[in-house]
Please model this.
Amino acid sequence: MSRSQIRRPSAPVGLGDDDTDCPILHVDMDAFYASVEVARRPELRGRAMIVGGSGSRGVVVAATYEARAYGIHSAMSMSRALRLAPDDIVVIPPDHRHYAEVSDSVMEMFASITPHVEPLSLDEAFLDVAGARRRFGPPRAIAEMIRAQVFDEQRITCSVGVGPTKFVAKLASTQCKPDGLLVVPRDRVIAFLHPMPVGSLWGVGERTEEQLHRLGLRTVADIAHTPRDTLVRALGPAAGSHLHELSWGRDDRSVATHVRDRSIGAEETFARDIDDEEVILAELLRLSEKVGARLRKAGYAATTVSLKVRFADFTTITRSRTLRVPTSVSRELFHEARALYLRLHLDRARVRLVGVRAEGVVDADAVEAQLVLGAPEHGWREAEEAVDRLVSRFGRGSVHPARLLGGPDRDRFGQPGAADA
Model:
């Protein structure tokens, strides 16, 4: 959509344009998944459109601003979204590979401006542009350049907050969405922050917000003028001190250029509740394959494997096991996830969702020294790396574990080391 077609909400005014001491930018793509779909389907411009899964368990991944006007938002169930939507709303299934490709291009553009880029997700990142001034100009000019390049190259819009700290820059980008730019000079930080509701502060979820409201604290200014000791007694030492510092705009965190994923996981909600152990184990195998591939692509190995199971009544449990030697081998991840599941002795309990997560990730290169050349896991690691190369060349779905292709043979989920078909 063109920028003239986007209706911007009113943003704070009177903050000034002095970006002298504002080296931090927070760039946030506007309705990213939905905007990417509109960019490759121009006929959808200006229409209400949802990106999300179909079926009774589908959820909204993203929605255009036209769809949001009906109260539709991400993470809403698709069934509820369709009840709110007009009859002519468009629903598109997500294409995560394409979104990742667009994200990679945008992040590469950021990196061409400054090496100090901290991605937070596919569609947002912090940039420290202090060292980029000489080449590209002051922070505000860099922000305008980024917005123009994102639009010219991807045909999507982004909002940019410019401030002295990460916290302020992120709040600024939120306040000027969509397709906006807001500079918060250091001497105007308090005026910017204090009128905001307490829920604007990082770390304030629904429960903390309720606690603050019970104390009579509604705005950031209320928190700022509450003694730190009072906040600590009510919220605990860490949370109380954290919110007190943020309420005065104090945030000493730098842009973390190299941020390692603390965990890599995948989960699946079944179309219907499942009590068939074989079907559940097959899904755990598929998820383990996905997690292992992501670990290998990132150059990581996991020290812990975690299993997540959600039952039909939405009760959720997790179990985990620390490995003797870190691994990125999908076969090993499945072995641990399978063992954790079987130890639950569920006796045909109906399962709604399962997930596999690799935690405590470390650099895979550091693990090589711990592995004995010629050990079975080495052979499997080499085989799976070969599969990764095939998938990279021929696409996802071109290679499957034999266990997921067979008939009703229940022994195909045997222990590692058993012969595969």
